Amino acid sequence: MQADLKIIKFIKKHHVLTLSVILPDNTPWACNAFYVFDEQLMCLYFLSELKTQHAKAMLVHPQVAGTISVNPKTIAQIQGIQFQAKATQLQNEQAKQAYGQYYQAFPFARVIKAPIWALQLQRVKMTSNLLGFAIKTYWDK
């Protein structure tokens, strides 16, 4: 199912996500990461070294959640995405393709020697008060 164009436009417009994971000891953890969006695959790509808390967590519990949001000064400008996704450390050709997109968006990242991950979006809820107070748009894979 194709995602709503408002959702796609919002995700493409931004570049930082907040990722929530469950650590191997079953406690929660969150982090922020720069991402690029693969609209065709409905994936968010980001870099993370395997030694990070969130990478260790994703290897054990690949089901994750996250947000992409703006920081408005008024309630009328609230916009954001909440998502559920499946995290995968990419390898081989998939990694090569994702690195290409990531480095095009963030050329400085070429110096970071970290694995690239895909967050395959499973469910998205977008809130945008720009469309009307508490208006929600949903997408499910």
Automatic annotation (TrEMBL):
InterPro entries the record matches: Split_barrel_FMN-bd, UPF0306
Entries under Gene3D superfamilies matching the protein: Electron Transport, Fmn-binding Protein, Chain A (2.30.110.10)
SUPFAM superfamilies listed in its UniProt record: FMN-binding split barrel (SSF50475)
Domain of life: Bacteria
Descriptive protein name: Uncharacterized protein
Lineage: Bacteria, Pseudomonadati, Pseudomonadota, Gammaproteobacteria, Orbales
